[in-house]
Design a protein that fits this description.
By secondary structure, the protein is an alpha/beta fold. It has helices at residues 41-52, 77-88, 92-107, 123-134, 175-185, 213-231, and strands at 2-7, 14-20, 27-33, 56-60, 112-121, 139-143, 162-167, 191-196. It contains 6 helices and 8 strands. 44% of the residues are buried.
Length: 232
């Protein structure tokens, strides 16, 4: 496990990414897209978990344009306040550009087979959706993505498989937004939505207030099956 530098495509510099490789040293790539807390322990654990499953996992620091190296938790009010400041100051279009640069870095990396997927959580769930619509990603997964309902016009750009995990009691994604997502995406043959009745936002974040092991395990198995079908 290591930190690497990734070159931004707009010439504004480099940003870091947390890299986790499988024991074999070779496998498909997966971009791990952060929540609003930066590339913190959960994101790094996720990259390590994917590496243990045989993937070359790379988690880019998407807040670097505001403040590099952010690692917050969901445990204090101060961290939540800073996380929302960063979220509100985040340029989504630049974030997708940086994910595109991360995809390129993975594809050109020693040990990557050339196939690259993405998985994102919360803000990262929205970015995973937009990654499927705007980039050359081979497959993407979003967990409880926020504000996807506001960007359904982008669905026509989805050319590769997309899997979305939807928490039915998500405090950040109301029922009306979930219904709009289904209405806008269910007819798209490239998109699969899984609903998790009774689950709240971040049900797959280990150690989080709403963590539910049973449904987290189910969602993670679906994610691994999805990547095996589309990246192997």
């Amino acid at each position: 496990m290591s930190e690497i530098n990734i070159q931004a495509t707009d010439g504004s510099g480099t940003f870091t990414g947390y890299l986790a490789k499988p024991a074999s040293g070779r496998g498909p790539g997966v971009v791990v897209i952060q929540e609003i807390f930066g590339v913190n322990a959960f994101v790094r654990e996720t990259a390590d978990w994917l590496a243990a499953q045989g993937y070359v996992a790379l988690a880019p620091d998407l807040f670097w344009r505001q403040e590099p190296g952010i690692q917050l938790t969901d445990k204090t009010e101060a961290d939540w306040a800073r996380a929302f400041e960063l979220f509100n100051g985040f340029n989504i279009d630049k974030g997708i550009e940086d994910i595109g640069a991360t995809i390129d870095a993975l594809r050109n990396m020693d040990g990557c087979t050339g196939k690259v997927g993405a998985v994102g959580y919360c803000l990262g769930g929205l970015l995973a959706y937009l990654t499927a619509a705007r980039t050359s990603i081979d497959a993407a997964v979003g967990y409880y993505g926020v504000s996807i309902n506001d960007r359904l016009s982008e669905a026509s750009g989805i050319k590769r498989p997309l899997l979305l995990h939807v928490a039915s009691e998500d405090g950040f994604v109301p029922k009306e937004a979930q219904a709009a997502m289904h209405q806008g995406l269910d007819s798209n043959s490239r998109v699969t939505l899984h609903d998790y009745p009774g689950r709240d936002h971040a049900f797959a974040r280990t150690g989080g207030e709403h963590y539910d092991k049973q449904d987290a395990d189910l969602a993670n198995k679906r994610t691994l099956d999805f990547f095996a079908a589309n990246l192997r």
